[in-house]
Each structure stands twice: as C-alpha cells, then as structure tokens.
Here is the input.
Amino acid sequence: MGIATYPSKLGQPAKQPSARQAQSARASVLQQYSSVLRNALPVELKAHGADLPMAEIDAMADALARQIAKLVDTSPVSKPRKAQALAQEEWITTQEAANRSGFSRPFVAALLDSGAYKGRVNRTAGGHRKVLAGEFEALMAKASAEAPKTLAQARKAVDLKPQQDNAQAVPLTERKRSRARAQALAKKLGITT
Here is the structure.
C-alpha cells in the first residue's frame, strides 16, 4: 500500500503527502481490503462447509484487512519503528483484542482472568492485561472453528438431559406418590395447580 506522491509544478519534485493525507489513504485502502474480504469470506467458508454469522465474518474481515495492510505497507512516509516486531510478537491491550475478535472488552478481560485462555498474558505496572496478538487471534480462530455453527450442532454438543445411573433413578411409583402428596398439600393450602 504505497502512498502516492502528488505532482507539483513542472520542473519541481513531487511533494510527499501530509500525515493526514497518508492516514486517510491508509484508512481508505483498509476499507477496500475489508470490503473485498467481506464479500469473499462467506463464499470461501461455505465452500469449506462452514457457515458463520455475518458479525463473525465482519470481525474476521477487519482483522485480516489489518494484517494484509501491515504486510503490504512499504510506504516511505510511515514512521520507522524502533524494533519492528512481527505481528505475532506484538502485545495488544484487552480493548484491541476485543476489537479484533468481535467480543466486548469485559468479556476478553474475564476470559483472561478465568484461566480458560491458554496463551501468555502480561500485566503492566498499572495492572492492565496484554496478550500476544498472533497467539490470541490463533486461539480465537481455533475456538471459532470448533464452535457449533447451528442450533442442531449446539444441541448435539451439549447434552441437555442429565444422565442418571440406574441405582440413583427414583422409581416411577415413588415419583407418583410424591406428586400426589404435593397436590394434596396444595389443595389444603388453597393453591390451585
């Protein structure tokens, strides 16, 4: 995503764009990438047997667009970084992680504190949590791929009927007697069922 230079009067060198113009150009290109990905991802996911809600596709498209923009950005106007770390080695805040994953910031913070998140979590001196961007996105992608996509799959994954051992099961006649006692008590108290 190189930044275009603007031609000036004949015989003079071309001017570099201002920081605001460069930022605007980057935002425009990022929107274009996101738009293309929003159109392409549903088709590709469907071809591979996955059907995700549009909110998840939008979050994925935005995250992928940012990654593509980082890979493509070779602009001479961009500020040099001291130690240009790879995206996988970039520590991000819980808000950035929430933006990339499509969850809320409190949910991401609770996830990190619960112990369910198996990645590295770094705490700043002020107590703020930070995670590695690549690690967080990889774990979220894995969780998203393993998550049930339809209500039928969710019902199959979670057995809503508790399994009882035959030894612990209450015999049917005992349940009937218990129900009859409860109805008799309700009738005495004037409660209609």
